[in-house]
Design brief:
The longest helix is centred in the first third of the chain and has 20 residues. Helices cover 9% and strands 72% of the residues. Strands 1-4-5-6-7-8-9-10-11-12 form a ten-stranded antiparallel barrel.
Length: 232
Amino acid sequence: MILYKLKGVFMKIFISMCLAGSLASASMLVGFGAEVDYYHPTASGDFNYKTTSTHFNDDSQSGYQVGLYFEHPVPLIPNIRLDLTPEISFTGSNGGAGTNTVSINQSDITPYYEILDNVVDLDVGVSFKVLDVNIEGTGIAAQGLSEVIPMGYVAAGIDIPGVPLTIAGDVKYVEYRGDSFTDARIKAVLQIVAGLEAQAGYRYESLKISDHFDMRTDVEIKGPFIGLGYRF
């Protein structure tokens, strides 16, 4: 399992954050939010798994991403966020005359604490990314992998004075013995009316694996997104 050995380390960090975040959580109200974005990512780099080799040359596709979160005032118990990026398929060269199609599905489960909640918001937690990948191509049997990747999580936002606008971003990151995974987003959120929001931003992902777990990859997936959200 990719970077599985880090799970114990992140659990220790998470327990420490339970203590640090308990006082902050006690002052919060119950809240729930949902957001849906149209996402247009581009893939570049090399994705090699077992006997397959795929080179992405800025292949662009369309998809969507969904975010859900729940916050509460109970001390020690973390808030929870769920991010879904349903299957997006990228096509690349297989090193010969043919092509491969790599389909990627991501589900992120993130327990976190809200450390600050005023003009500046700050969340800290641990994210568990469920990564499902399927590879199909010319002259090869279909192959697939499924991994759970523990990652550190930090999110921050700042309200712009005088306008109903927030600039926000979050980063999920892990590194172990030269292998790394980054998933970062930045966005502008405009409050429209009541709890309804419009948002636009940019997402960047980087996966670097050096000959571990049957993988040798150096891939970037990045692109803009635009969507709507609602806070209950």
